[in-house]
Amino acid sequence: MSDKRKTLSSFDEMEKYIEEIEALANELVASAFPEGPSWNTETCCLHALSNVFITPREVIVTADLPNIEPETVKVEAVDENLIEITAKMKKKVRFADLGVCHRQGEFSFLRCKGRINVAIDAENMTISCEEGILEVRFPRKKMHKIE
User: Fold this and answer.
1) Residue 61 CA, distance from chain mean position
2) DSSP H or E segment with residue 54
3) What is the per-residue pLDDT across 28-60, written as a single tens digit (0 to 9) for each?
4) Residue 15 per-residue DSSP state
5) Which residues of 55-93 are buried (b: 16+ CB within 10 A; e: fewer)?
6) Torsion of CA 62, 64, 66, 68, to 10 degrees
C-alpha cells in the first residue's frame, strides 16, 4: 500500500513540474511576442510593420502597407495615446501565399497601431504614401509653461 502512495505522489510531483514548465514557456512566448501573431483571421487582417518617431515639433508614424488601395487608408485616434491605421489591400492574401500550409484563411486588410506618448494635434495631420510606405505627420500640441 505504501508503494502505491509513492507512485501516486511521484506522478503528482511530475505533473506539478510539467505545469511549472508550461507556465514558464507561456511567459517566455508572451515576452518574446507581446503583440501576438501578426494576423487576425476573424477580421481578415494582417498586422503591418510600423514605427513612431518623435521630434520636438512633430510625431512621424510610418507604416509598411504594400499592395493597398490608397483611397481606403484610414488613420484614427483610438485614444489620446494610440492611433490605428487601416487600409484595404488590392488583392487578398492567403496563408498558402505566405508559405504556410497548416492554416487556412485569407486577408484583405492591413492594420497597425502606434502608441504615442506625447500630445498631438490629430486634426492637422498630413498623410503621404509612396511605394507602399505610408507616412503620417502629426504636429505636436504646444505645452503651456507653468510659472
Assistant:
1) 14
2) strand 50-54
3) 766 666 666 687 777 888 888 999 999 999 999
4) H
5) eeebbebbbebeebeeeebebeeeeeeebebbbbbeeeb
6) -50
Cα atoms in the 13 Å half-sphere on the side-chain side of 109: 15
List the one residue out of 45, 36, 62 whose CA is nearest residue 116.
62
Q: What is the pLDDT of residue 82?
A: 87
Q: Whose CA is closest to 93, among 130, 67, 62, 65?
A: 67
First to last CA, the chain: 81
All three cell numbers of 69? 488601395
C-alpha cell at 104: 487556412
Return the C-alpha cell found at 110: 492591413
- The x, y and z cell numbers of residue 123, run together, are 486634426
Bridge partners for 114 per DSSP: 83
Q: What are phi and psi of 122, to 5 degrees?
A: -70, -20
> Among residues 36, 63, 68, 39, which one has the least CA distance to residue 51?
63
Q: What DSSP assignment string belongs to 82-133?
A: EEEEEEEEEEEEEGGGGT--S---EEEEEEEEEE--S-B-GGG-EEEEETTE
Give the predicted TM-score (pTM) of the model. Answer: 0.67
